Amino acid sequence: MALREVRPLNAEQWKQVTTALKAGPTPQQKQFIAIALERAKTLQEIKQ
Length: 48
Known about the structure:
Oligomer: single chain
Mean pLDDT: 92
Helix content: over 70%
Number of helices: 2
Strand content: under 5%
Structural class: mainly alpha
């Protein structure tokens, strides 16, 4: 469901976003990416 209104971020929210972007992915996020890439590779092999 889409939001009806989009509100700009306040200064504190913007700071949180930029800090998270600078920090990069967490180890858990890296693990999820690796799993997703392996599954995508498997799907490509099955499709061929």
